[in-house]
Amino acid sequence: MKNLLKSAAFAATLLAASVSPVAVQAQTLPPAVIIVVNMDQVFNSSAAGKQAQAELKAKIDAMQARANTLRTQFGAEEEALAKSQPAPTNTAARPAWEAKVRDFQSRQQTAQTELSNREKEFQASRTYVLKQITDASNPIISTLMRERGASIAMPEGATLQHAASIDVTNDLVARLDKALPRVSTTAPAGAK
User: Fold this and answer.
1) What CATH class is the domain 2-179?
2) Could you tell me the residue ranges of all domains in the chain?
3) Which residues contact 166 (CB under 8 A, 6 or more apart)?
4) Which segment of the chain is annotated as a signal peptide (predicted)?
């Protein structure tokens, strides 16, 4: 055991002696150059982002209008059904009223499914818009990194503070406007 420890210590001494200060310097990495991008600003101020926001707003407004119409329609119908409920002793009128209630509930469920599907479509459209803008931004960010000699690009939200000189958001938006002036707000079939 003593021989093994002596051998290990001797090997460590030889290894330490063989590593020169020049080799240590060669292994030192250059300082990281960072650029920062505010992707929220890219989505909100780029031409494609503004166009998509307008189209998505129209979709959400239509969805809300439909929900309000259904709410009003079903509210009035529910009130009418409650008022027309026959007395428990009126067994002749009860089956017809119960059929109306089942029909009402069925239509109400269909309407809820419709609104749920519209919500899913809207979310898929929104996600698709974000994907198109992100996909088009990535090569531009890579170009900006090369131009600035950056080794890291990070979202502004991940920084506590940073100098304005490392923020490339405006450059990205200007180039993105040329590369991607419009996006589709209709997600491909099956996208969720």
Assistant:
1) alpha beta
2) 2-179
3) 34, 35, 36
4) 1-26
Residues belonging to the chain: 192
**Widest distance between CA atoms in the chain:** 105
Residue indicated by tokens 């209709």: 186
In the numeric block, which tokens belong to residue 67?
Answer: 């929900």
Among 69, 12, 63, 33, CA closest to 162: 33
The C-alpha atoms of residue 28 and residue 22 are separated, in whole angstroms, by 10
Q: What's the Rg (C-alpha) of the chain?
A: 32
pLDDT tens track for 77-122: 999 988 888 888 888 888 898 899 999 999 999 999 999 999 999 9
Give per-residue pLDDT as tens, 160-189: 998 999 999 999 999 999 999 999 999 888
Distance CA 178, CA 128 (A): 20
